[in-house]
Automatic annotation (TrEMBL):
Identification of the protein by name: Homeobox-leucine zipper protein
Locations listed in the record: Nucleus
Keywords per UniProt: Coiled coil, DNA-binding, Homeobox, Nucleus, Transcription, Transcription regulation
Location of the DNA-binding region in this protein: 65-124
Length: 184
């Protein structure tokens, strides 16, 4: 029996998928690639059976802990914030001036301003949402108050109509009793 799958290969031709993205399909993909098996005793000393893991540098950057990335100092942040308060948009001269003053790359300044504008816009949307929510709640309370008032007025009107009908009926009886001729 052949354990290395040398005699068992999937043909290289694979049917074309019916899609407009067929150019992305890998026509030479081998679903069952031949694997090389070694005997347990044939691994030279000093080599591992498993492939080596990624280096610590790659592993760190994968989790957002890249040692090359440095946070901005408080002075740099204060300067950038003050500049942002003066003008939200960043023109090229101002960008290069800030980069020189703060010892940063112009691209870092541009990215910081872009991120700060995004945070500023989100904050404005949150504030607008809160204001609209408060306004909506005030209108809702007013609507509920008016509905209660309408319900009370309808009950009062119904009570008034009922009393009027009763007085009309009793008034008709009174009129009828006075208009009956005497039998004398």
């Amino acid at each position: 029996m052949d354990w290395n799958n040398e005699g068992f290969r999937v043909p290289g031709f694979v049917s074309r998928p019916e899609s407009s993205f067929s150019f992305l399909y890998n026509y030479t993909y081998d679903q069952f690639p031949a694997t090389e098996m070694k005997q347990v005793g044939s691994i030279p000393s000093g080599q591992q059976m498993l492939p080596p893991l990624m280096g610590t540098k790659n592993c760190m950057s994968m989790y957002g802990q890249d040692p090359k990335k440095k946070r901005l100092t408080t002075e740099q942040l204060e300067s950038l914030e003050n500049s942002f308060q003066e003008e939200v948009k960043l023109d090229p001269e101002r960008k290069t001036k800030l980069a020189r003053e703060l010892g940063l790359q112009p691209r870092q300044i541009a990215v910081w301003f872009q991120n700060r504008r995004a945070r500023w816009k989100n904050k404005q949307l949150e504030n607008l949402y809160d204001a609209l929510k408060e306004e909506y709640n005030a209108v809702l309370r007013e609507k509920q108050k008016l509905q209660q008032e309408v319900t009370a007025l309808r009950a009062l009107l119904k009570d008034h109509v009922t009393k009027k009908q009763i007085s009309d009926i009793s008034g008709e009886e009174t009129v009828e009793s006075t208009s009956i001729p005497s039998s004398d």
